[in-house]
Amino acid sequence: MPYRILDHTADIGIEATAPDVPTLFSEAVRACAAVILDAPPGEPVAEAPVAVEAQDLAALLAALLGEALWTFESTSKLPVAAELEVSATTAAGTLRCMETATVGGPAIKAVTYHQLLVERSDDGWRARVFFDV
Amino acid sequence: METRSVGPYEWEVPVGEVPGMRVPGRVFADEELIAKAREDRALEQVANVATLPGIVRASYAMPDIHWGYGFPVGGVAATDVDAGGVISPGGVGFDICCGVRLLRSDLTIPDVQEHLGALSSRLGERIPRGVGAKGMLRLDRAELAGVMRDGAAWVLARGLGWESDLERCEDHGALEGADPAAVSDRAYDRGAPQCGSLGAGNHFLEIQLVDAIYDDAAADAFELSDGVVCVMLHTGSRGLGHQVCTDEVKTFDTLMRRAGISVPDRQLACGPVDSAEARRYLGAMAAAANFARANRHALAHGVRATFEEVLGRTAEDMGMRLVYDVAHNLAKIERYVVDGRERDLCVHRKGATRAFGAGHPELADRYRAAGQPVIVPGSMGTHSYVLVGTDAGRDKAFWSTCHGAGRAMSRTQAKKRMSGTRVRDELADAGVLVNATHPGLLAEEAPYAYKDVARVVDTCEGAGLSRKVARLRPLAVIKG
Fold first, then answer.
1. Residue among B379, B384, B382, B376 nearest B401 (CA)
2. How distant, in Å, are the alpha carbons of A73, B211, B311, B361 from that of B469?
3. What pLDDT, on the 0 to 100 scale, is given for residue B438?
4. Which of the residues B69, B153, B186, B436 could staple to A112 if both were Cys, CB 3.0 to 4.6 A apart?
5. Percent of chain B with pLDDT over 90
6. Which tens digit of pLDDT belongs to each residue from B157-203?
7. Do B69 and A112 touch (CB under 8 A)?
């Protein structure tokens, strides 16, 4: 399963897995959308450019998800996937978005660094992120 | 995580439970609340906070403690500014200066009973709420900078609210040291359309009725009496505060690595209070805090205007004066005697409320004899409380007490137990009107998802952190 939602007493988390880092980041964007929708995201029909930098892959993912949330807040387009080129400290490319989204889940305030993780796994990569809701 | 009883309502997490602990953890709880705290990772977070450089006395947790991010919710930590003590933006949280404002009135049940439906409905229409809602005030960049600098006074100067509101507000409606220039463009963009909006999630507005008085003298000072109608609102600094914290956690994560500081959880990212980054953060945090004060001030104006419209009387005639406005996510530099020496401490309160005892010089004259009012919202359908700070609170936990009931159940668990519409219907059966933009989300905030707020405030009283003054029963709830 490429992503799953993690339980938390007050907030909510996601865990994503993928064979490579760009796909991992895209799955994390999809998982974030699933939290917002409280349902599996639909197909993307719109795009938004994105470019972030940070000091390591985990912080990079947090920054990317922060941009996804900002895109949703400022344009109402909900990113559900990403096509990215990722280095150790940068990620740039395109957020792929649903044009309109019916919010069914809790409002996400922010991406936290709590237990933030991007690491190699036996068969690829794994990420964990908690959101403040 | 080991916890041992060290007194009535007090539990210690010994040094050593997490590597690098500099002080013990100290949790204020009764047997049931400590058992609840053991169920998630809250106590581990208490121990993690105890590793922060410069922390003094203990890493404290209030009785409404639960698992948060970095700090536990209900966490209090003070660091010695002149001894390398740190500040952690995550120890304030994303919703900087989230807090509660309580309006009292001279109205009683006969005045409002027939109008509750109309009040609830019109408040729902007039008070911007929910995800993406635009605020009552639309601000350009210069105006937003003014809000961040002057807080509630900026809104007052535009003719909204009453002069007397300011002295009835923590910090008189504006935290000193705000630096709007330290706030990012993204935070400006997020804050500009949101001043005067409630938000979503656990933020709410409630019409309530005082149904018990525990301390007559303090209740008199707070102008509360049995049977009067009040309005409580709970919200914070909206997207502006969220963005300030997002920006600063990233900055401090980098600073921490450069400074060679190691913490058990990256969300505890921190740096010396005596550093350029910390000074910048404190300026940005105060700016966001002032936005939150202005936000609640504007919303209270909307509440008064709605009552005037529905009941056909002026707010002055109805006696709709502010009781108080408290923050429960903030860091402040406060002065305490520790180990026989007076020191400046950076006191983080994350899901905890400052609670000055009687006589504190920072209190407005009207509260100095009684002590600081503390407003503790319950969960939808349960009582809320007004407390007062105590003399003992200073040495117990740097004049801090609880901030609410505290979650007991995850959102997923809460939704499995009951649908949101059923929660709404059950509350209606219990005499509580609920007006929600997304009834389906009500289950996440259902009363059963929270701890027993009565137990929490009783534990605060038993531990000496605060005393009960009044209890308020909900009549109508307006949710985002």
1. B376
2. 41, 11, 28, 21
3. 83
4. B69
5. 94
6. 999 999 999 999 999 999 999 999 999 999 999 999 999 999 988 89
7. yes
Per CB distance under 8 Å, which residues of A are interface residues toward B? 5, 7-12, 54-55, 58-59, 62-63, 66, 70, 73-74, 76, 103-107, 109-116, 130, 132-133
B190 and B245 in contact (C-beta within 8 Å)? no
Q: B357 near B390, Cβ under 8 Å? A: yes
Identify the pLDDT of residue A103. Answer: 81
CB contact under 8 A, B441 and A132: no
Distances in Å between the alpha carbon of B458 and those of B28, B236, B453?
A: 11, 26, 8
DSSP B29: -
The residue of chain A with its CA nearest to that of B449 is A9
Distance from CA of A4 to the nearest CA of B (A): 13
User: CA-to-CA distance for B389 and B373, rounded, in angstroms?
Assistant: 7
The pTM assigned to this predicted structure is 0.97
Buried b (16+ CB within 10 A) or exposed e, B194-225: bbbbbbbbbbbbbbbbbeebbbeebbebbbbe
Is B403 a known active-site residue? Answer: yes
Q: Which residues of A touch B186 (CB under 8 A)?
A: 70
Over residues B253-291, the pLDDT tens digits come to: 999 988 899 999 999 999 999 999 999 999 999 999 999
**How far are the Cα atoms of A48, A125, B71, B347 from residue B266, in angstroms, in the given order?**
29, 20, 11, 20
Task: State how far the Cα of B381 lies from the Cα of B392, in Å rounded to an integer.
Answer: 32
Q: What is the ipTM of this complex?
A: 0.95
- Residues belonging to chain A: 133
State the pLDDT at residue B52: 98
CA atoms within 13 A on the CB side of A36: 30
Look up tokens 């600073």; give the residue: B255
Residue from B170, B152, B79, B91 nearest B355 by CA: B170
Neighbours of A49 (CB within 10 A): 10
